[in-house]
Specification:
The protein is of the alpha/beta class. It has two domains: 42 residues, no CATH class; 197 residues, Rossmann fold, CATH 3.40.50.150. It has seven helices and eleven strands. Strand 6, helix 4 and strand 7 form a beta-alpha-beta unit. Helix 2 packs parallel to helix 3 and helix 6 packs across helix 7. The longest helix has 17 residues.
Length: 248
C-alpha cells in the first residue's frame, strides 16, 4: 500500500546477518522489539545519553527508563532505608530521597570512594534525607558504618552502582545482600556492559569482567535471591537481570 504518510518511509522488517545468511525480522514481533532495543542501547551508549539526564538539576548518570523502574520498585517495596554505592555527583541519591519523601519518609545512605564537591546537592531541601559516606564500598569499615545505621525494624533496599568490575560487584553483593529486607531488592546497575562488550566504546573484557557475571556467580551461591524480570520489562535498561529480590 502506498501513500504520503511516514509509514511509507519506515521499514516494518530488519535484516540481521547470520551464519546462514540474512534473517528477516518483523519489528512488530517480540523478537523485533528485543533486537531494536539492543540496537538502541548500543547507539545510545555510543552517544552517552545517560550523561544527559538530571534530577532536580543534578546529574544522575542513568537512563530515564531505569529511573522510572526504580521509582516503581521503591513505591512497591516502600523502604525507609536505601543504601546506594556510587554517589558520584549525587543525582541518584537525590532521586531516591525524593521518592522517600513522597512515600512518607526515610533515609538514603550513599557511599562513594571520592568526596566529590556537590554544591547543587547541598542546596537541596532534601539534603537531610541523605547521608554521604566517603570510602570504598567494599572496605569492611565502611560496610560496618553503613550497617550500624540500620535498625532491625528498617525496611532496606540496596542499589549497587560503583566500580563495575566482576570482583568488586561480587564483594558488594556479599557485603550488602545481608542488609536487604526479605521481599526487598538489591539492584545491580550496568549489567548491560556484557552486551556492549563489542560496541565502539565498549571493551571486550566486559564479556567476562562486568556486573553480569558477578550477578550469576552470586545467584548460584544464594538461592534466597532471584532475578525479578518485572522491572526489566521495558528491555531498554542498563540494569540487565539486575533486580535481585530476596525471598520472603
Amino acid at each position: 500500500m502506498s501513500g504520503n504518510g511516514i509509514n511509507d518511509r519506515l521499514p516494518s522488517t530488519i535484516f540481521i546477518p547470520s551464519a546462514t545468511g540474512n534473517r528477516i525480522i518483523d519489528i512488530y514481533t517480540e523478537e523485533g522489539y528485543r533486537v531494536l532495543t539492543e540496537l538502541w542501547l548500543r547507539s545510545g551508549w555510543e552517544r552517552q545519553i545517560y550523561s544527559m539526564i538530571n534530577w532536580l538539576g543534578v546529574p544522575v548518570g542513568q537512563l530515564p527508563e531505569d529511573l522510572l523502574m526504580m521509582q516503581e520498585c521503591i513505591y512497591n517495596v516502600r523502604p525507609n532505608i536505601i543504601v546506594e554505592t556510587g554517589s558520584y555527583l549525587g543525582g541518584t541519591a537525590l532521586f531516591y530521597a525524593s521518592m522517600l519523601e513522597l512515600i512518607g519518609g526515610g533515609q538514603v545512605i550513599s557511599v562513594d570512594i571520592q568526596a566529590f564537591e556537590r554544591p547543587q546537592l547541598a542546596a537541596q531541601s532534601l539534603k537531610p534525607r541523605i547521608t554521604l559516606i566517603t570510602g570504598s564500598s567494599t572496605d569492611p569499615a565502611v560496610v560496618a558504618e553503613v550497617s550500624a545505621m540500620i535498625r532491625p525494624t528498617d525496611r532496606v533496599l540496596v542499589a549497587l552502582d560503583s566500580d563495575h568490575s566482576r570482583a568488586h560487584v561480587q564483594k558488594e553483593l556479599e557485603f550488602y545482600a545481608p542488609l536487604v529486607t526479605p521481599g526487598s531488592y538489591i539492584v545491580v546497575f550496568d549489567g548491560v556492559m556484557e552486551i556492549l562488550a563489542d560496541a565502539p566504546k565498549g571493551s571486550l573484557a566486559w564479556a567476562v569482567d562486568s556486573p553480569a557475571p558477578a550477578i550469576r556467580d552470586f545467584l548460584a551461591a544464594h538461592p534466597e535471591f532471584s532475578v525479578d524480570p518485572h522491572y526489566s520489562r521495558l528491555q531498554a535498561t542498563y540494569s540487565t537481570n539486575g533486580y535481585l529480590r530476596r525471598r520472603g
